[in-house]
Amino acid sequence: MKEIVESFFKNESIVSHQIDSMNAFVATPDNPDSLMQKIVDETRLSDEDESGVIVLDKTKTGGKEIKIYFGRQKERGRYIGDTTIRIDMPEIKEASGAINQITPQEARIRDLNYTAPISLKLRVSEDGIEREPETIKIGEMPVMVRTKVCTLYGSNLDRYIEKTNGEKNNAPVNGTRKQKLQYVGEDPTDSGGYFIIGGSERVIVSLEDLAPNKILVEKEEKYETQVEIAKVFSQAGGYRAMTALEKSRDGDINVSIPSVPGSIPLVILMKALGMPKDNEIHDSIFSVNSMNPIIYYNLEAARDPKIHPPNGVVTTEDAINYLEKRFAAGQAKDFREKKISQIIDKSLLPHLGDKMEDRYKKALYLGRMARSLLELNLGIRKEDDKDHLSNKRVKLAGDLMDELFRNAFQSVVKDLKYQLEKTYNRKKGLRIKPAIRQDLLTQKILHAMSTGNWIGGKTGVSQLLDRVSNVSTLSHLRRIISPLTRSQPHFEARDLHPTQWGRICPNETPEGQNCGLVKNGALLMNISEGSDILGIMDFLNMNGIREPTKEEGQMGRVYINGDLVGYHEDPIGLTQTLRMTRRRGELSSEINVRYDDSTNEVIINCDRGRIRRPLVVVENGKPNITRETLEKLRLGDLELRDLTSIGAIEWIDAEEEENLYIALYPYDFPERCPKCDTLLYRGIVDWVNQGESKMKLMCQKCGKEFEGKSLLTKEHTHMEIDPSMILGVTASMIPYPEHNSSPRITMASAMTKQSIGLSATNFRIRTDTRGHFMHYPQVPLVKTHVMDYVHYEKRPAGQNFVVAIVSYQGYNIQDAIVFNKSAVERGLGRSNFFRTYTAEERRYPGGQEDRFEIPTHDVMGARMENFYMNLDQDGIINPEAYVEGSDVLVGKTSPPRFLEEGNERLGPQKRRESSITMRPNENGYVDNVILTVSESNSKIVKIKVRSDRIPELGDKFASRHGQKGVIGALIAQEDMPFTESGIIPDILINPHAIPSRMTIGHILEMIGGKAASMRGSNVDGTIFKGEPEESLREELLKYGLTYDCTETMYDGITGKRLEAQIFTGVIYYQKLHHMVAGKFHARSRGPVQILTRQPTEGRSRQGGLRFGEMERDTLIAHGAAMVIKDRLLDQSDGTILYVCGNQSCGHIAIMDRRKGTLRCPVCGNTGNIHPVETSYAFKLMRDELMSMGVMMRLILGDLK
Amino acid sequence: MSSTREQKISIMEVRDNFMRFEISNITEGVANALRRTLINDIPKLAIDKVVFRHGQIRDSMGNVFDSSLPLFDEIVAHRIGLIPIKTDSKMNFREECSCEGRGCSLCTVSYNIDKTGPGEVYSGDLVPFTGNVELKPTDPFIPIIKLGPKQALLVTAEATMGTGKTHAKWQVTSGVSFKYHREFKINKDENEGWEKVKNDYPKSVVGETKEFLTITDDYQQRGVMNFINTSTHRSVINQTKPVEIMEDKNRFIFKFETDGSLSAKETIKIALLRLPGRLNILHESIISPD
User: Fold this and answer.
1) How large is the ipTM?
2) Residue A1035's closest chain B neighbor by CA?
3) CB burial of residue A249 (10 Å; 0-12, 13-18, 19+)
4) pLDDT per residue as tens digits for the range A811-845
């Protein structure tokens, strides 16, 4: 089945869910039903207005009826006609007015937004006479890299290259795609799936959310009693509202509606919705006889004149009167009607519609909610599992952009109407183009994208793309976050749920407060795009479904996307037929169905955002896939989506999976190959004759076939493609994870994301503010299959170390690592660190601007000449210059900040020095100097400084098993223990690191690495199918090593043989980006804060090291008063205050510097003034109190 | 103790860059001192200073090349530093040289690389031009860098003498190790398959008495455990009483190889010469405690 996985990764990108989602969103000519177009069609100015059209106020147009159509018209439930909105290629309008298409790399370097213009086609009808449609640019839309509208997308790139070739003539017009990508400065294997805003890459992280429009029943503790609640998060368009039904202890069923205070009795609300007859209400709720008492009780309560005087609520009018009285008492009839309509049409269950005629539907729906509620109450139904993935939906970039665009577009249309009405001029007629404010849309979207603050108060939606290593980037693009608050426990929500199998990685999650809330997609996961409901409705109508008016005894209910659509006599048969039809390709593969035998319901889903996974269909104990198809798949003649259309593979959501019986493995095999006697394991056994009656397996070692034992039975409905695909990207990098304790896998996947290596091949021209690059990254000796799929061998992040597990004088105690200094000198673990400094010649209002130049003497704050020595004439430093602490990189002067500044004498104003300098505690060589212009045509210079990071004491390293440690000592080669063959380990780790952590995978990898280095080929450590321990140990023996992987070692210092046999092996270690060079800090004296005069905080500001409360406590315990005074006063903010000694005054005196005298400004006292040592913070407090009118007098006295 | 007995050296194998020998009747301290000297105290030539030409580089045809390289200068310099160079052991350390550290032909060899892209730069492109010009890299095919089109590497470098104590690039030897002389005694009565074992090993390692078969692992890289565990003999050897191991802790089998800058013979000669010098340092520090 390897062919299926390989084909998946060959044809689909690892971030295809992001890209597909955006492709469905953007309006391109080949996709007339894009989400954007739908938003445009649905947009209306207010609830009363028609959608897709602006109608200008007649009073403002001089009586003319002017309509501006911007959306398509609706006909029979569908929008028809030409599309009205369109996105073009990403481009930038230069300051010169020229418009140029841009590439992602240009956007990154020039700090641009990678955005494409959105144009809208508007049709104006004036008194019924239609004008020629106008196409106008309304703003810009950020473009996701590698989507259809991106410059890098297949044919787009070809066209772009051809276009640019005219100017430079060196473009690879006939080159390969790889060459073309390289030509535009891209890493050919970069996945895309992110946006570029202001030059920085941003990801829209997928959001996990409770499924909308689904009735969820649960029990809740309220007022110390248990109540049953049925909830629906109703969602229509961009609007979301939760309607809840609650059954109290005494049997009352009440409905609470958003933006409505209190709750409304169910029966009254149903009556108000146009269902006045009691038996009708009863029928819509009823399902079993035991419900009757509760239903009757509620019906009676509504009719009871005592509760609802004078005559009880009987008719629809009564019910509406009741509502009017409650929510709009004492107001005009008009207003009352409007208010009630607002409540029951807009706020109540908006997904069912917002018109008068939808009211009856809502009544039926409420009845069904009540039925579920009562079924829960009577124990027929179980509480819905909120953490079950079938009750969750994932919002991808496309959905989140939908929200954003909907909001922004609405305000554009509103503004357009306002502007048109304001500027309408009878003579000149209607002019639309100047009335559209492009900025409004662009800024709204860009602001949200660059801050991550989405509409609806969500924060952190867009994040800066993690570029530490290639896998961290991929993992970031596959992240799924839950909006649940981090502070509350939510234990159940954090737990691993069985439905997450194959959809969400069980191991990759952060530790601590976000544990279990931040998740990552499993490898073969995809997210449903959704399909039209009409197709499935047609199918159901043809297969004998009954209208959902009345509960029909033994018939099964049929739901689509959580909504009851009818009843069916044979729900099991219906489910089967549906599946068969889908497998034939006659129904969309987006549809999933489940039959729930406990409630006799058929649940059909075809909405967006369900996490699905592919499974092989098994029928009659045989998979629906033949060797032939697999072979075609391997050769690329078929793709995965072809397999879904022939019914060989199905995408299954968590709901449908409840019905399935899935085989983990299709076959079993003997322990050893019957032909060549090698130890067999899943990784080297292939099933070679799928589709034939007698199962044939093949041993990859000898290539011979033998008979296998099928594990598939008639009961099986599906078969796992590959169980190793349950992990996510980072967890898949770990060899033998199934032998480790699970917390260590979690830690290892977190650390893989911090390991430095080759993150992108275009790193030399990238301008990330911080970046790392490893000098000699290696492909791990013990690999996993997934590494091939994510091209890990092309972007590795680590090195294979020779490791001995032995203590070394205590230098590797507590997880420290002893390093071989000579190995480090030969290049082990070396890396580079980059930092990019940016300077811009900014323009200020008033025509003034910054200048890159070497500041002269007359510039305020200019440094000594030698500080500018490294600079070139243009004020910018040269490449390969050595720079260190606070050296100037770009000489820059700015105009004076205030006009008064420096205005003491007449003459030209002095400019300010505003040079860009190195960080005080960093050094390095100038790697690259990039000079370009910004969007506003001001010069931008980006200077990349590189520095060597040679492993030193304190640098952090980790294996792929959560075994992290810092360097405890660098020991010369001759002092290290050595083996009889002369091998000296690269590192020594402490034996205590192993037993309590139970990282057996670590041990196995060491054995595997040793075997691999002897054998000369990689060892496969893929989860569930890697080369087993026994096979590795046999391999060791074969090459003359010991079975237990140990070596005899001699002490390098004394020359004596070590008593114990030392376990040594080769294992992949990762260098993590926490390095001493970026962290070490000390200060004796240094800068202080202006306000408090206390030392600054933080390494970057050369701050002090806090002598905190607990440290202070220790000194109190010692009675070391002088030390406390020294730390807390003398070395902090101690100041001398001159205090007026006048007993009735006590103010602070002023020193007259010129005369050298002291004088109290309040009482005029000049003689009786004394110096007092206080902290400056005290003086500050005194001043602040004074500002509030509180006078603090310092009354001096003699010490007694 | 065995120190009363006479020391004996027997050489087992000598190749240009490899040597294996046995010293008997020494303590492990002495053996280790020799091993450590071999690793860190053999003077050798290595490039210590690399000067890059930055900016435009022109070749003899007047074509213009760029000094920007695919690798950073630091990496290139580090790579050049690690290239083993043929060493004249008579050369001086710079700080001890008559030139007083200024650098002369007695202590310094200068090299240059002048290569234009596209193409690879190998250690063979490192050409000596002052000092003893015979001192070329031992292997001309060590890759240094791959140049792209329009790229050029123009570098001058200086090699000086140094020892492994300062930096690993001045290390002549690799794979230096010793082990105890060891014999495995197999009781013929208890191990029926002894004859198979005997036939499987070369005659030079097998000894035989009436009762016992002895095998030494002097010629083997691997140790005792390996011998027992080797799968072919596992069935032969009685698992309950496998073999008796006789270890002589005063008889050491040494082995090392060199990177070619010096021959193995030369290296051991220098090591044995420098060893007393090292002991002198110890001696002096004992008699004059400052």
Assistant:
1) 0.92
2) B231
3) exposed
4) 999 999 999 999 999 999 999 999 999 999 998 88
